[in-house]
Amino acid sequence: MSLADTRMIGVSINNLTGITGHSYGLDEMVRAAREAESLGFDGVWVHDAPFGRRTMASYDSVSILAAIAGCTTILKLCTGILQPHLRNPVALALSWATLHGLSGGRAIMGVGTGAGKGTLVNRQYEALAALRHKADLDPSAIYHDRGRLFVECLEIMNRLWREDKISHHGEFFQFDEVTLGEARPATPPPTLMGSGIYVPKEYGGPAHHLWSKENAGRFLLGRYKRIVNLSDGWLANHTTPQEYDDSWARIEAYAAQRAPGKKYAKAYNCFVNVNDDRDVARNEAADFLNKWHTMIADDVVDRWVVAGPANEVAAQLREYQARGITIFQLVVASPDQFGQMRRIGEEVLPVLT
What we know:
Blueprint: E1 8-12, H1 26-39, E2 43-46, H2 61-69, E3 76-82, H3 89-102, E4 107-111, H4 118-129, H5 139-144, H6 146-162, E5 166-169, E6 174-178, E7 191-194, E8 197-199, E9 218-220, H7 225-230, E10 233-236, H8 241-258, E11 265-274, H9 278-293, H10 298-304, E12 305-308, H11 310-321, E13 327-332, H12 337-348
Parallel strand pairs: 1-2, 1-13, 2-3, 3-4, 4-7, 7-10, 10-11, 11-12, 11-13
Antiparallel strand pairs: 5-6, 8-9
Helix pairs in contact: 1-12, 2-3, 3-6, 11-12
């Protein structure tokens, strides 16, 4: 079955410290995955924030998913999103291929270039500069070139998963005759690519580097051709249903030229809070988002959050299902991670198609 034919409603389990008022340990994340499987979720997602500030640093996502693979049987194991360009792509290709094999092919790598503010991004790229072959490389220059670095990392991983032995001489990496050997998977692991962001009406938030008067209040699809060239589907957020349709039409038109006959998966990410009081749900979700990203404007919250009574949450998600979206990353937008996961699983999942 291709990724495009996969139906997967998954829930994020919290591997970020500090944003809920409680530091979730490894045992709690494994417990959350087991509970997600028992509640009927099709998959779990883990986040990726390496080298970040103390309240946002995460455990290694690949290692967590490997642990979850050993104690679950049917859950898809997903990253949302993983930043391959903050790692060595050869090492990441090997560890992900190992996870893919351990899990019986249940791993889905969600990737993206990431977004963030100030010190968080600076620390990430300073740490990355320490791993580069050019010791004098400026971290800010790496951040400026992150799109090309991201592409090169994916090109390397895709080749290592598909070819027996490769040599590569690119802008950022140079090596000869590297192979994954017995770890090379019989079927390449599927990938989803995050692309696009809503730029708030006022300056600030995770889209600060894209803000301008011309972009303000608009959803920008971004480098969507990378989705077709390097992945198996689009993982979107911030879009209205109509914007999703409009953006998908552009992706589909390019795919018809570049990869005729290949089907691409349609996926969506949102923050969810279920409460019979709509205002309580929305306010708690907004507070959670602000602890996560900081400076999240109301218009961003309105696009990123699905909150309210269970029937209203389900109705909003069904609008995206009606667009052919079959893969969901539902992020629990509450300090009560386990309680909210149970409410979503027991009250929302049963009424989704």
